[in-house]
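User: Can you help me understand a structure? I only have the sequence.
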Amino acid sequence: MGSWFTVVLSDTDNDIKSIHYSLWMLGLVGKSGKWKKGLDNFRLVHTGDWLNKSHPKQEVITLFETMRDTLPESAKMVILNGNHELAILQKSDNGNTMGLSKAQLEFIRNQDIMYVHANNLFIHGYPTFELLRLLIQLQEESVDLNAFNDRFRKAYYEGKYALFREREGMAILGDIRQAQAYYRSKGSNGKSHGRVISQMLKKLGIDTVIHGHRPNMLVQQDFEFKLDVPGIRFINNDNKARLSKLGATLIKENDWVRFINPREMYWAGGEKSYRKSLRKLLGTRKKDLNPAVEQPPVSLEPPLESLQSDPPPDSLQTRYEP
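Assistant: Let's start by predicting it. Here is the structure, written out as tokens:
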């Protein structure tokens, strides 16, 4: 494999198949869902709502625990909590564990709220004044911005607040019901909130925000607020992957972004050609991951279907008709 890249998942909402299928298409896992051997130099980020807040599946927590414990040494995995995970914690603090064990609830509690890497902010909702003021305070203290997660855990995991609901006055994490209206509204100085938010993000060295929380239909939404928050690239990564079984955003250096979704697969000519192009792009083909293995001689005969590697498991077959 070559240079580092980041795979972003969002709002899979209890659905393991969409996680497996998306990572399998990218060549990161095999049919069993286990990491492939030879992988390195990648990050996996989930921006939250990986559980269903009313009926959380223990199997999803087990999956992420296993993926974390078996992660390749030079890779990084970041699982963020969304409003679903926080709702589960709040219910458990009030005595309703919804069948989750103490260890499983602790796993949820230990996940972060936001993640900053290079010029990218990964978060479930939308950045607000409240959040950015706290991050700027950390910056002024010469503290890594990701230290916010520890301070958040200490301050707010008490089951007292609906943390993603503005009506509770807890807009830190940005469940903005009308995001465009929020960014277009003006303060007493006459400046729109979006322009001020843009200045604050730039002060933090952030020019791209990758989030979920607001579903689109099959595809991601790029440059979501290009006029309202100038100079900041918003990427809404929630393409209802739990329904389409395929959804991710790829990020590489120099602001290179590519979206993984059923429409892109259709335009690529179908699952097989799309899978091959993605794995070639990321360097996750067999010959990329195992370069020391002697390759078979090139045949002039057409390849047999039975010799093609890594067919998808039946349960993960996905087709998209336009």
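Now, to help you interpret it: Residues 80 and 156 are 16 Å apart (CA to CA). Confidence is low (pLDDT under 50) at residues 159-170, 294-322. Let me know which part you'd like to focus on.
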